[in-house]
Amino acid sequence: MTTWLAPLLLLLLYANDVKAGPTADNAIKKGFIQCGVNTGLAGFSQPDRNGEWRGLDIDLCRAVAAALFGDAKKLRFTPLTAQQRFTALQSGEVDILSRNTTWTITRDTSLGLNFAGINFYDGQGFMVTKKRHLKSATQLDGAAICVQPGTTTELNLADYFRANNMKFKPVVIEKLEEVLGAYFAGRCDVFTTDVSGLVAVRAARAANAADHAILPEVISKEPFGPVVRHGDDHWFDLVKWSLYAMIDGEELGLTSKNIDRQTKSANPVIQRFVGAKGEFGKMLGVDNRWAYNIIKQVGNYGESFERNLTPLGLDRGLNQLWNRGGLMYAPPIR
Ligand SMILES: N[C@@H](CCC(=O)N[C@@H](CS)C(=O)NCC(=O)O)C(=O)O
After folding, report:
1. pTM of the full predicted structure?
2. CA 312 – CA 330 distance, rounded (Å)
3. Confidence grade of residue 14 (pLDDT, cut at 50, 70, 90)
């Protein structure tokens, strides 16, 4: 075969036969996507009174289901502790992990996983009871600190105390219920996790939220994102672009309320987004209305944030769009 023919054939093969990949094929066969989520963290992933899972991380899974099936409901959830989550993904028990999981080089490489983007920028903080009258994390020398294992939290904690030449007594408990129980019962002086987690548990689990203070120090970078296994690039692409569609949708001013009207827009950027122009869905191995379905059924990133996180008192901060002073930035759909 001439040397130029092989790449040409390969290109033709790919151009004509784009699929959503084995994970998607399997999900289609099952009729749903299995989504690994938090066992119960307000704003991110928690069942409501009717047993419906709600939260920013739930919406991400709903977006992928909307893109793949045209139906955001074709989902099942597996609640996972920090320690269980990566094995559940590696073993194929879940198709996607969407659970306040920090993107690190170790997880992205040696665990055999891929982070499909960032859906929340956070950092680690400390919560204490107000009656201790603490003003700063630099006053925590000798403290007993409640922390969950298998987290970046546990590792950053050790780094921070070493770097500041302080000692601490780790109280390491796997289950969220139990670690919080230990903190609220006074078995530790401090509870440490991502600031969003502190805000969520203070709002949703403390007997009296006003009794607890979050100290001003933020000791790490915690970029959270959805995670997939190595080895299925098509699935990786679909998850990545489902998140991007939520962010691009917000940037374009497309909401669950106005998207139907906007399908008639003369703006070519919007025409591409809703699938009126181009074959972007086909390139992903799904329907060309994939992004329309996401916005219609789930909403844009800002809508998801406002529905899930604003009620807890979290502001957009770093999670604002890039053109409004934040870091949320998605590549163009074109
Ligand atoms: N972002 C950190 C920490 C994530 C984490 O698991 N945080 C705890 C504390 S809020 C949690 O979500 N626990 C809930 C559970 O174990 O189900 C990581 O990826 O390691």
Report:
1. 0.94
2. 26
3. very low
